Amino acid sequence: MTEKDFIPKRYSESMEHGSVSWEAPSNIALVKYWGKKEHQIPANPSVSFTLKNCRTITRLDFSKKENQSDFDFEIYFEGNKKEDFKPKIKTFFERIVQYVPFLKEYKFEIHSENTFPHSSGIASSASGMGALALCVVSLEKKLNPEMTEGFFRKKASFLARLGSGSACRSIEGDIVVWGKHKEIQGSSDLFGIKYPDEVHENFKNYQDTILLVDKGTKEVSSSVGHNLMHNHPFAEARFAQAHENLAKLKPVFAEGDLKQFIEIVESEALTLHAMMMSSRPYFILMKPYTLEIINKIWNFRKHTGLPVCFTLDAGANVHVLYPEKDKVKVLEFIKNELVAYCENGHYICDSVGDGAKQLSDDN
Ligand code: PMV
């Protein structure tokens, strides 16, 4: 498929007003996306676990308007009108309007809320852009009821990508690949797909406990970080490594080899941060407690033999990953030894989920 396949032809229906509502989850990458080309095309493929509990719920109210010269929308977050969210949404609309040309024909009200605290340091852009993209494609489906379920999901992921790259992995569950990889059939730079190959029982309902080490906003945004991969001395080797790690994960997913899984996932997390530390300008997003937690996890794993590991996103928080069967023991370890490093003792218990869900659809 190419971008052109997402440009609609004619719509068979018209719609005066209505409302659609979706919830979309956050996701955590195992092989990381870091570095992009124009139009949010990733420099390397990535794979993620879709989460279950960290979600954004968005309702899009729409009514037809006379003047079609510009976008017309208001955004409410957790009940409050948010003027400061508008520029980001406007940029998103500008990027996607050629694929959903009806955007200027409607006046919109966007009502959004997160199931996780806004100031948790958890990026809400993946779940937020995912939910909004799904609402927009839902409206398009009303104008073109023939749209198939498969195309619907691809288009939602395609649009979400234009909002925030990793958001394209927040439509499907439970494992999602984004970025063309020669050994993964159907993989594309344009949208995320559900991982199509065999997945062992060990990974079913995998747990992710998110330790909130630093709830503040990041000093360096992801978009700045991605851009620093241009002219990065290790960029080409890093992009090649991501391809290799994804290829290595295939037999790991199929056979349930947790030892290999841990090695790949932890190495990916540290490599992501190594890229930040070796870019110009260089920067560090980990905090002292991030390292304390990593060391505690390594000690715990060594002494108990339990397959618990960590990953990081572009921040100081630590995602602790482990199989469901070890939940009781690992949670006890987290409570006894790791919670002390969390800001105000806060952490979020999550696990792998099935992807976005439609909540309502009223005309
Ligand atoms: O989607 P963005 O532009 O916020 O970038 C996300 C980058 C990482 O979270 C660090 C890695 C990833 O693949 O999600």
TrEMBL record:
Pfam families to which the protein is assigned, alphabetical: MDD_C, MVD-like_N
Mvd1 C-terminal domain span: 210-339
Claim: Signal is one of the keywords in the record: no
All copies of domain Diphosphomevalonate decarboxylase-like N-terminal, residue ranges: 24-183
Key words of the record: ATP-binding, Lipid biosynthesis, Lipid metabolism, Lyase, Nucleotide-binding
The UniProt record lists the keyword rRNA processing: no
Listed name of the protein: Diphosphomevalonate decarboxylase
Organism of provenance: Autumnicola edwardsiae
